[in-house]
Amino acid sequence: MIVACALSATGQSRPVTIFLAGDSTMAAKAPDKKPETGWGEMLESRFKPGTVKVDNRAMNGRSTTSFIAEGRWKALIESVSKDDYVFIQFGHNDQKKDKPGVYAPPEQYRANLANFVKDVKEKGANPVLLTSIARRKIVDKKCSLNN
């Protein structure tokens, strides 16, 4: 909805690009992994053809920490143009204390997100922070979800 309003307000002639930075919940999946899918795979099809291009940079298992360390954020931000959108969704992998290359303490997680927003705004583009999914662990042995 945000993008559709922006397109009509700016009268933009080129398709707007929505970059996706995140983890498996938005990432494109290999054909042999179907029917598993990330929500980002189908996003472009939700817009009128030719108006929006989705550049999905999300990757399974990534956190703000690993996305930066692997150079994925730098490559994404170098591709961003004025008036583009960058949808940012991280969080549930950042909490993995047992994975040092992925873990971000809460202060670092906030700082990473703040830097993402700053970088996008410096390009004249639009950052959109998306709520992280909640990690659930059901331990009730009577619950049918454990079977």
What key attributes describe this structure?
147 residues; alpha/beta; Rossmann fold; four-stranded parallel beta sheet; 4 strands; 27% helix; globular
Task: Walk me through the topology.
Elements: H1 2-10, E1 16-22, E2 52-56, H2 64-69, H3 72-79, E3 85-89, H4 106-122, E4 126-129
Parallel strand pairs: 1-2, 1-3, 3-4
Structure description:
With 147 residues, the protein is α/β, with parallel strands linked by helices. The chain has a single domain (2-146), classed as Rossmann fold (3-Layer(aba) Sandwich). The protein has four helices and four strands, in the order αββααβαβ. Strands 2-1-3-4 form a four-stranded parallel beta sheet, with helices on one face. The chain is globular. It starts with a helix and ends in an 18-residue tail after the last strand.
Largest sheet: 4 strands, parallel
Structural class: alpha/beta
CATH superfamily: SGNH hydrolase
Tell me the helix content. 25-40%
- Tally the beta strands: 4
Uncertain stretches of 5 or more adjacent residues: none
Named CATH architecture: 3-Layer(aba) Sandwich
Radius of gyration computed on alpha carbons:
17 Å
The CATH class, by name, is Alpha Beta
Total helices: the number is: 4
CATH topology: Rossmann fold
Secondary-structure element order, as H and E? HEEHHEHE
Summed up, what is this model?
The protein has 147 residues and is of the alpha/beta class. It has helices spanning 2-10, 64-69, 72-79, 106-122, and strands at residues 16-22, 52-56, 85-89, 126-129.
